Amino acid sequence: MNSRVKLLPVDRQEQPETPSPLVMRVTLSLLLSLVLFSISWHLAPAMALTETGFSPTLVANQQLEAHQTLLDRAKTLFEIQEFDDALSLLADLIDHGPPPSLLQEAYFLQAAILRTMNKEQSAASIMEQLLDEFPASPLAHETRLLLGQVYFSLGQLDHAQAVLEQVFDFSADPTIRQEALSQIRDVYIAQGNHVTAIQSALNEITLVDYPQRDELKTIIQDLILQAMDQSSLKNLIEAYPSRYPGDLATIRLIELHTAHGDEVLAERDIRAFLKHFPDHPYAQTALALLQSFMHKIKINTHVIAAFLPFSGPLKTFGADSLNGIRLALEDGKAKLEATTVGLVVKDTAAVDSTTLQYEIAQGIKDFTPIAAIGPLLSREIQSIAHVADDYEIPILTPSATLLDVRRFGSYWFSTALTASLQVRQLVDYAMTQLGHTRFAMISPQTAYGREMSQLFTQAVEYFGGELIAVESYDEQATDIAQQIVRLKDRDLTKYGTITEEKITKKKTRIIYTPGIDSIFVPGKPVNLALISSQLAFYDINVPLLGANSWHNPKIFRWARHGIDHGTFTDGFFLGSPDPSVQDFIQRYRARFGADPSLFSVQAYDAAWLILDAIHKGAQSGADVREQFIRRHDLPILNSFASFGSTGILNRKIYILQVNKGHFVQIN
């Protein structure tokens, strides 16, 4: 592609370079013919006479011819690399006001010469002037193409991307559009946005001939093999799961995992590759690797299975959960001498309930795991409910928030943070530690709000408290004054009081003293902001209580009134002062380069409970189940726990409080 301009950094100290092919093509295309005249600008043309006197048309034509001649001479000087003389001639031409068509050409040639002389900033200024004065110029696309290159050289990548995208969007010339795509790709690469760079290259392939397509595929391959990390490879696979270049990205990811000794991840990705690319030339190699990994897993004394999503909207939660399991296995080898425990992983994403049931059952038959971790979703548990009891294998879900998993079978367990756990421990803490006995509640009119309302009512009754008022609101509402007035009126019929205080001889102030100790406000931070401000407006200044939906830094931006000293619950807190928690966080960061999430912690606990059962002598799924049911000293990250009759782990909940723009653990 002879017209291509490579986007390369420019060394200001280098000698002026030979004009680029793009510039030569544009400037030469503007010439109908190159006629050399020995004309001095300062020699004015003679005024022609006709029978009737002077001819203005002839004079204008002679001036136009002189302007054109000077432009042609400047082009010739550019070709022979007499750059200073060419710029001087163009400056004279521009000063003498040539017609717009020639002025546009003069601007463009001036910018091209300056670019060739490595004077990018000056070149950019002239091209910006050209586009400002002549936005509909025939040279607009070529100007933006060169301006994008100049911006790139100056490191102004966002500006470069913007002007080049204009060229691609509005030019009808396939060659110019392809050149714009080529330069946009280089911008993305410089930004480190390799996935988008590859997408740009794929668009470019549709605009070029076959030899150039091979060149672009080589560029894509080089980016995948040399520039992309595991995160960007995963994003590329997500964008192209069943077609090129998703195959190359998956192969590269398998190679990286294998090289780093992450055979669990390699085995997971091989299965995905064989599913999406069964006829690929690499399939035989992938199958051989898979068989090797399967053999290594099967020779372990015990195997743990994990049923998690690794693609689609839940892939982040699946990855966090797997990281928690892997860290537990590594800790188990170091602390429990669990060196003969293998891990087999099944991707639950993008399969229907029937297929999921079959594949999980097949995996259990192939590996006979002693226990399994997963799935993440309640509906997935329902679809494979009978599997646990059929194969006598304990299955621990680390995140499904069902209040009772035991109804699906005696081998089902949960390490998830449930609404019931949160509400019961919140009310218990509020009454025993904060001294609250009188409560009110304002909850959203959603399934979540109704569940929390029911659980809070039951917990207050169980612990001997009194629920004075219950109100609800539409999440889309911008005003809940009526609900708050009703709540206040209800309190006044019970324990709230109103007194009068004299301000002056003629003025008194009504003072409302709430009888309510605290108000439970589950829901989103944006709704909490509205509620807390309106409670303050009606002088209901009591502490607020909430659940883990409060655990969001945005709460400090949205809610400015009434949330200080608000108390809420969560299953994990990065700022916990607990040494064991901080040790876990540091080890997780060192291993995976990120902070652990609640999903990581709950999956870690599930794996650690299985490893501890094996350490204490469990040889089968039935043995593990027996320990889970019998023991009350099950070790988890920050304490000991036990499983209740519903199969839910009675784990310790973090009680957090809002304190001057920060979250603080108070239990």
Beta-strand percentage range: 5-15%
Instruction: Give me the secondary-structure category.
Output: alpha/beta
Which CATH-level-2 architecture of the largest domain? Alpha Horseshoe
Q: What gyration radius follows from the Cα positions, in whole Å? A: 36 Å
Strand arrangement, largest sheet? 9-8-12-13-14-17-18
Helix residue percentage? 40-55%
**What is the fold named in CATH at topology level of the largest domain?**
Serine Threonine Protein Phosphatase 5, Tetratricopeptide repeat
Indicate the overall shape: flat
Major pleated sheet: 7 strands, mixed
Mean pLDDT: 88
Q: What is the highest CATH level, the class of the largest domain?
A: Mainly Alpha
Find the count of extended strands (DSSP E, 2+ residues). Answer: 18
**Overall tally of structural domains:** 3
Tell me the number of helical segments per DSSP (H or I, 4 or more residues long).
Answer: 26
Low-confidence stretches: 1-52
User: What is the CA-CA span between the terminal residues?
Assistant: 69 Å
The CATH H-level homologous superfamily of the largest domain:
Tetratricopeptide repeat domain
